[in-house]
TrEMBL record:
SUPFAM superfamilies: beta-lactamase/transpeptidase-like (SSF56601). This is CubicO group peptidase (Beta-lactamase class C family). InterPro entries: AmpC-like (IPR050491), Beta-lactam-related (IPR001466), Beta-lactam/transpept-like (IPR012338). Residues 82-377 form the Beta-lactamase-related domain. Transmembrane segments: none annotated. Pfam families: Beta-lactamase.
């Protein structure tokens, strides 16, 4: 019987209690400034939350025990991925278990990049928001001012970010007869060309309601390329990954990475193959690690991230046509409790066999990240960990998937 190897960066005592290793107490790496075509991207402090207090040993051990118990209840013997919880920039718990490559019996480690699926939208939105903050782009700017012949005059950068554009999902309209040859890898530019030349109708009038749509973020990736003069991958690398020292994060390139990227699996460890949609980026196709995504979350909470008005716009709901607590801001999902509790901010993802969850609790300065390359729904259950830090009234019947 093969034993799944695991790496846990906390010391677990024989009775199940554990104390934090020195490695979890270290400050996060200094974020360096770089120059790009659009100027200095992030003028970050070495750690934006460095002035916040460390958890007391008692509080630390209490939180670790709660999370350890959560892990044992939900993931024991079933995890294949990576999982991290941090507060005030301090890693409380992290766990890496299972196989990056099942056939080669290659274990997942803290440095193993996994496909983060739609959590990629958070990163795409981050770069768009920085360009807006630097006045290289406007939130209400019409997309047809950037792309000639773009046939939807009311669509703006904002309605792409908050999924109110009315565009249809490219996975659906490219599957229709006569639109695209599925033997060819689809690109972002192909999507734009199809929208311009193939008379693809909107699903609904722009800004009349919400509909989550990957096409929005595939187009935002093209906006990044248009404004910066760089490829999306180069822009993300030079303007986000390098300054935040996200050393194990990259944008998947179908031609270069299809044979080397960490594969994904069905629940029975049958490898999921790639298809004609795997060349699209912006909505997906970023590989990363929990530690790198923690760096991103800390940077987004910095007062230097964007101006206050734009920061408030990110975490505001835009879609109230239907009753309910769920909403979407600018690149982030949210639950706005009708009973008045603190809103819950997150983004989940699913692509092929990969699942992901990115949770950011600004009030409590907590980051919760789970990634898996073997399909399962347990990835999304990390939302319940929020209840250990604040007043988040989750019930078992709730679903954020």
């Amino acid at each position: 019987m093969k034993i799944i190897k695991s790496i846990t960066y906390i010391s677990i005592l024989s009775m199940g209690l554990f104390s934090c290793q020195k490695s979890t107490q270290k400050a996060l790496p200094t974020v360096q400034k770089i120059k790009t075509k659009t100027g200095s991207f992030l003028e970050m402090q070495p750690n934006p939350l460095a002035d916040l207090p460390k958890l007391s040993n008692t509080d630390l051990q209490s939180k670790q025990q709660l999370i350890f118990d959560f892990y044992n209840k939900n993931w024991k013997n079933n995890m294949n991925g990576s999982f991290l919880v941090a507060q005030n920039g301090q890693i409380i718990f992290e766990k890496y278990d299972g196989f990056a490559d099942y056939e080669l019996q290659k274990s997942i480690t803290p440095q193993t990049p996994l496909h983060i699926a739609s959590v990629s939208k958070v990163l795409t939105a981050t770069l768009i928001l920085k360009l807006i903050d630097q006045k290289k782009l406007a939130l209400d700017q019409k997309v047809n001012t950037l792309f000639n012949l773009f046939p939807y005059p009311e669509i703006t950068i904002k309605t792409l970010l908050n999924h109110r554009s009315g565009l249809r999902n490219y996975a659906y309209f490219t599957a229709e007869k006569g639109i695209w040859d599925k033997h060819k890898i689809l690109t972002n530019q192909d999507i734009l060309d199809i929208l311009i030349h193939k008379n693809i109708q909107l699903e609904f009038p722009t800004d009349s309601r919400f509909s989550y749509c990957n096409t929005n973020y595939a187009l935002l990736a093209l906006v990044i390329e248009k404004i910066t003069g760089l490829t999306y991958a180069d822009a993300m690398n030079k303007m986000l990954f390098k300054p935040l020292q996200m050393k194990n994060t990259y944008v998947f390139d179908y031609q270069k990475d299809k044979d080397t990227a960490t594969p994904s699996y069905k629940g029975n460890f049958r490898k999921v193959g790639l298809d004609y949609l795997d060349g699209i980026y912006g909505d997906k196709n970023i590989f990363s690690t929990p530690r790198d995504l923690l760096q991103l979350d800390l940077a987004r909470r910095s007062p230097n991230f964007v101006h206050q008005n734009l920061q408030e716009a990110i975490y505001r709901g835009y879609s109230y046509e239907n009753r309910g607590a769920k909403n979407y801001g600018l690149g982030i999902r949210m639950i706005e409790w009708t009973t008045g509790e603190t809103p819950f901010y997150f983004h989940n993802g699913w692509w092929h066999g990969s699942t992901s969850s990115f949770i950011t609790l600004g009030k409590e300065n907590v980051t919760i990240i789970s990634l898996s390359n073997k399909f399962n729904h347990e990835t999304y259950k990390v939302k319940y960990i929020a209840t250990y830090f604040g007043d988040y009234p989750f019930k078992i019947k709730d679903s954020l998937e």
